Automatic annotation (TrEMBL):
Pathway: Pyrimidine metabolism; UMP biosynthesis via de novo pathway; UMP from orotate: step 1/2; Pyrimidine metabolism; UMP biosynthesis via de novo pathway; UMP from orotate: step 2/2. The active site is at residues 315, 317, 320. Keywords: Decarboxylase, Glycosyltransferase, Lyase, Multifunctional enzyme, Pyrimidine biosynthesis, Transferase. One of its GO terms (biological process) is 'de novo' pyrimidine nucleobase biosynthetic process. GO terms for molecular function: orotate phosphoribosyltransferase activity; orotidine-5'-phosphate decarboxylase activity. This is Uridine 5'-monophosphate synthase. Residues 256-475 form the Orotidine 5'-phosphate decarboxylase domain. Substrate binds at residues 262, 284, 379, 439, 459-460. Its EC number is 2.4.2.10, 4.1.1.23. In the C-terminal section; belongs to the OMP decarboxylase family.
Length: 497
């Protein structure tokens, strides 16, 4: 049985190597915390890492989780070294879950030898909301593995245990934040005022896996959940795999620009895509206006998307019953499901439209590589998408087929609250105004900071330019700067919360 003396000794060692510290730190879930854990530093202290691995192995035995045939899987990436040590010490097979699926070779998401039905025990370092554990659980279960338990080094006691329990995963923690604070107080490493401040913080900030907060038993939306969180942090909270990939792409490429390639000639579209590809995260098409649409055009477009690292979105605006949209999605001349990563969809037909589209998902078009943007609002004057319609659309997005809905097309900052959903907003131009057909245009700064857009659609502002590449670069830079200012405001205003 693991002794309390051993636990206290390891706790003080973690503090002494600066694995946790006190101050005012911004967390990836979008709030500020008076305490921060960084267990990555243990890789520079082999003795501490060895001790931690021994204690976790003993902890696994104490909790009777060392059953025969159980695999180990460390949540990437911090828990991987510890999981590896435990695997060696306990002679247990280990699996590696990739954060991103390979685009080549076997294209595996989970590496290692296993069979469907095998059990897997998750190893994690620090848990706040439990989102990283649940993300790993989803990927392991998608491969047929059985996951019922997770071992964590530190539970910050902010909802992680409850969130994982709701998904059928029991969380066992070596340390809780409260326990660590008491040990630090006993060993005179912190003052009592610090312990009280952390206790108050834990009580005030209970976080659900969707990024919302629980206060006094009531779930409330955290306004920092989306517009003031970074794309990297939000990627961990996305329920739709393609939304997760897109958020990571935007963060890595530093662009929120979507090009609306509303052109009628395939060669013109390909030339434009090649020119602006380095600056965009999405290329939006209207395939039914391309007069010479062909399979070769699609292959060339996909090649450019891979070359320049952007996704393809067909702005089809599906709006029919499930059976009809399923045929429109996979059949006809355009065979949209074969090449479009994303499609736009009206919520008017209700839940059935998503079921129809999802029925086209198969081995050649896996769910992880396809997603939809639901239209909640339009950017034209006099649009009939009123508040009631928009709210109903959001209900579909957040309660139904959440693994398929990547985001929302809208104009309002407050409509999209969940951090894992993307807001796509059309009608962006360097100079604001209205065209002759009622299309409203906002500046990059206004659409990002005031309207809350994550992805901004630009069409004629680039298409009509004599130098599309240079103009796209200008849009990208202004949009990215606006995004940085948007999340930077949180760091300044959120201090001390």
């Amino acid at each position: 049985m693991l002794s309390d003396a051993k636990r206290k000794e390891l706790a003080t060692k973690l503090y002494d190597i600066n694995a946790f510290k006190f101050g005012d730190f911004k967390m990836k879930v979008g709030i500020n915390s008076p305490v921060y854990f960084d267990l990555r530093v243990i890789v520079s202290h082999p003795d501490v890492m060895d001790t931690l691995a021994d204690m976790l192995q003993e902890f696994i035995v104490d909790n009777k989780l060392n059953t025969s045939g159980t695999h180990l899987c460390g949540v990437p990436y911090t828990a991987l070294p510890v999981a590896t040590l435990i695997s060696i010490k306990a002679n247990k097979p280990m699996l590696i879950r990739r954060k991103e699926q390979k685009k080549y070779g076997t294209k595996k998401l989970v590496e290692g030898k296993f069979d469907a039905g095998d059990k897997c025990l998750i190893i994690e370092d620090v848990v706040t909301s439990g989102s990283s554990i649940l993300e790993t659980v989803d990927d392991l279960r998608s491969e047929g593995l059985v996951v019922t338990d997770a071992i964590v080094v530190v539970d910050r006691e902010q909802g992680g245990a409850q969130n994982t329990e709701e998904r059928g995963v029991r969380m066992h923690s070596l340390f809780t934040l409260s326990y660590l604070m008491q040990v630090m107080l006993e060993t005179k490493r912190v003052e009592e005022s610090t312990v009280k401040a952390v206790a108050k913080y834990i009580e005030a900030c209970q976080i659900r896996s969707d990024g919302s907060f629980v206060k006094n038993g009531t779930t409330v939306v955290n306004e920092l959940s989306r517009t003031r969180m970074s794309f990297e942090a939000r990627a961990d909270l996305a329920k739709c795999p393609l939304a997760k990939d897109l958020l990571k792409l935007m963060a890595a490429k530093k662009t929120t620009l979507c090009l609306a390639a509303d052109m009628t000639n395939s060669e013109d579209i390909l030339n434009l895509a090649d020119a602006v590809g380095p600056y965009i995260c999405l290329l939006k098409t209207h395939c039914d206006i391309v007069s010479d649409f062909s399979e070769q055009f699609v292959r060339s477009l996909q090649s450019l998307a891979r070359q320049h690292n952007f996704l393809l979105m067909e702005d089809r605006k599906f709006a029919d019953i499930g059976n009809t949209v399923a045929q429109q999605y996979v059949g006809g001349l355009h065979r949209i499901a074969d090449w479009a990563d994303l499609v736009t969809v009206h919520a008017l037909p209700g839940q059935g439209i998503l079921k129809g589209l999802k029925s086209a998902i198969n081995a050649e078009r896996p769910l992880a590589s396809r997603g939809v943007f639901l239209l909640a609002e339009m950017s034209t004057e006099g649009a009939l998408t009123d508040e009631k319609y928009s709210s109903a659309t959001m209900k579909i997005a957040t309660e139904m087929d959440t693994d398929f809905v990547a985001g929302i097309v809208c104009q309002s900052k407050d409509l999209v609250a969940p951090p894992g959903l993307l807001q796509l907003t059309p009608g962006v131009k360097l100079e604001e105004g209205v065209d002759g057909l009622g299309q409203l245009y906002d500046s990059p700064e206004r659409v990002v900071k005031e309207r809350g857009a994550d992805i901004c659609v630009v069409g004629r502002g680039i298409l009509s330019s004599k130098t599309p590449s240079e103009t796209a670069r200008i849009y990208r830079d202004r949009l990215w700067e606006a995004y940085q200012e948007r999340i930077g405001a949180e760091e300044k205003n959120g201090a001390g919360n």
